Amino acid sequence: MTTPRISAPSVEAFSAAILRHLKLSLGKDPEHASLYDWRMSLALSLRDHVVEPWFESTRKTYEARGKRVYYLSMEFLIGRLVEDVAVNLGFEDIAEEAITALGQNYGDVVANEPDAALGNGGLGRLAACFMDSLSTLGIPAYGYGIRYEHGLFEQHFEEGAQIETAETWLSQAHVWEFERPEVTYPIHFGGHVAVEDGKTVWHAGETVMASAYDTPVLGWQGRWANTLRLWAAKPTTNFDLESFNRGDYIAASAPEALARTISRVLYPDDTTDVGKELRLKQEYFFTSASLQDLLRRFLSEGGALKDLPDHVAIQLNDTHPAIAGPELVRLLMDEHQFEVAQAITTARACLAYTNHTLLPEALERWPEDLFARVLPRHYRIIQLIEAAHFATAGETVRIFEHGEVKMGELAFVMAHHVNGVSALHSELVKETVFSDLNAAYPGRIINQTNGITPRRWLYTCNRPLRGLINDTIGTAWPDNLDQLSGLTAHVEDSAFLDRFQAAKDANKARLADWLKARDGVSVDPAAMFDVQIKRIHEYKRQLMNLLETVALWNDIRANPNGAWTPRVKLFGGKAAPGYVVAKEIIHLINDAARVINADPVTREFLQIVYPENYNVSMAEMLIPAADLSEQISTAGKEASGTGNMKFALNGAPTIGTLDGANVEIRDCVGAENFFLFGLTAAEVTARRAEPDYARTAIAASPRLSEVLDQIRSGLFSGGDRDRYVNLVNGLYDHDYFLVTCDFDAYFAAQRQVDTAFADSRTWTRMAALNTARVGWFSSDRTISGYAKDIWQAQSLLEQRDADQNVA
Ligand code: H2P
């Protein structure tokens, strides 16, 4: 479509820029510079080239007066940015050559950057991919979130058990952001509501300031840059001098400490204790700041608020910012004199809501008394919203129920569209969690299947495969991923398949080196790399994977001379600190790894590897190196998955259930290139209704019974029979996620994988077809879908280029 807009500097000029930053920004000379200094200087030199396209995009947006998209998300799981920016600028080679010329190793310099880990998993990473696509497509957009001081905790293993420590990415200067001290908004909490002169007034009990930090988000080839605006909480007054003068130093700093708490830490997922007042405050804090900011921007352009929906599309990423509905109504009513009905209609015309999960515990609810205490004005406004909803749709679905405020229902009622994140999930949203609301508001629920940015998840993280694709179909695919289908014509060509396999082998060797260097673990790159990486959760069924591994171990021991396909089972993922069962699963994987990896009989065929502290950067290393992608959730539970797309794109066929986007991936790659097993969503529901379904399944599976007995006997826990008693009994008594019922089918599918992998030419062809056929899962396609079906937002790229050609 458009041509690159950035003119690249020469290597010499870029080296000079790095040296200039080293000296003037870091205050170092090359002789004394650390890796950190080099990385910062490189980042600053790259950043210098981002600012101009960023300004240009902002200018164009103001000029065009088109619609802006506002993506409100508690999480943006960004990862590192140096390589990302270098790649999007088209400077990757120049950056690498310049750093090399300065005597540094580019890989080491890049790896020095801490991950921005402002998210838990798929939901946060999706937000980051969306920001990338919004910029690549040239759709004017802002991401709004929280500038957490501490991102997702760091995970360590102590004797196999997960230990958490605080993550500290901001202990170093974060070069990608620009502080905006002048952009601050007051955020109120508590107090009471009074009617004065016929007007409702909120007398807040406590106020903190939301202060903006902007990160430019550069799209492919630098053609457009949007803004990620993250809010930090600050006190209204920094310091209580009176207390200080009295000698009470702790009291003097108290206001600051209290306020800052709000943006201090990212809450881990599955923290089901809904009484978390601080979490509610975080949600309101960033939502209110974002809405105040977007209204200010709109008004500064001279708009009339009744026209707001023509200029503003606000997307709620899950229920976390669902308070946006009542907050926008409040701002319109209390500060801009709207009538209730008009305020609700206007707000709804701006708002849309994405649902990411059917798990009932993940749909937020707040105790009414807590809610009314923290947000008394909103409590009343939600009553008005509920009344308006009853008037149109009847009283079948309530927002207030059993003493709680239900944020899913609130988000639904206040959104003009609600979307699920895969075809199956969107249907299940209609049939289950929101069936009554779907009946009351037909057509409101639509689907937008998730996607991933191919710039990070192939182009950048998989250089060997990138090179092969460029050589085979040209270089226009990174922002037009359907072009990958051009690879299909080459899958019978043995020279192409050789190169495809060589790329995979190179990635596996790189991973092997990394594991050796970081953890001292040796793996055989000739073995199959079988990878499951994601949050640890019962529905994702890492436990089933581990049980299958133990069963395989038993089979190998029983027949050590059999023709076994060597495998390395790789696990990666964190458990929420309060999620006991998930932590037991981690412990069991590590315990089993210790025993199985030490077995001389099976060593050449089977190994378990679980590197600690899984994050985006680790995913970028693991995914290109994977031979097999594990997507084995209980059907009906994984809303979409996005890891599944990343693996397929990088040439790793899936073993998986008919769940989430697996269904659509299998449709694209072909049933013969996907290892399907397990109950369907409908069968899962039916099976749960059968009495004793788990015990029946265990009794019918000698393999599974043996494995469970081994775990119970203390075989993996040094004789400790208590360690996994709950985990094993849980499977017998209430195996809600049907690990026992799918076990045999999973084991059988894994043996099909063994056979297929042993025929390496056929396997490589299958892998290549996966890459060739998943172009549809680009987040550019997803964002185009949102823009068309939900936001009615336009790209400004063509208009801008046309204007510039005229000028
Ligand atoms: C969640 C869902 C995934 C989905 C993702 C993005 C909450 O992420 O469970 O199925 O793909 O949102 O829509 P995750 O489990 O990976 O944290």
From TrEMBL:
It catalyses: [(1->4)-alpha-D-glucosyl](n) + phosphate = [(1->4)-alpha-D-glucosyl](n-1) + alpha-D-glucose 1-phosphate. GO terms for cellular component: cytoplasm. The keyword Transport does not apply. Coiled coil: none annotated. Its EC number is 2.4.1.1. One of its GO terms (molecular function) is pyridoxal phosphate binding. It is an enzyme of class 2 (transferase). The modification N6-(pyridoxal phosphate)lysine is found at residue 646. It holds the Pfam family Phosphorylase. Its cofactor is pyridoxal 5'-phosphate. It comes from the Bacteria. The keyword Glycosyltransferase applies. Keywords: Allosteric enzyme, Carbohydrate metabolism, Glycosyltransferase, Pyridoxal phosphate, Transferase. InterPro entries: Glycg_phsphrylas, Glyco_trans_35, Pyridoxal_P_attach_site. GO terms for biological process: glycogen catabolic process. Belongs to the glycogen phosphorylase family. Phosphorylase is an important allosteric enzyme in carbohydrate metabolism. Enzymes from different sources differ in their regulatory mechanisms and in their natural substrates. However, all known phosphorylases share catalytic and structural properties. Allosteric enzyme that catalyzes the rate-limiting step in glycogen catabolism, the phosphorolytic cleavage of glycogen to produce glucose-1-phosphate, and plays a central role in maintaining cellular and organismal glucose homeostasis. This is Alpha-1,4 glucan phosphorylase. It comes from Roseobacter denitrificans (strain ATCC 33942 / OCh 114). The gene is glgP.
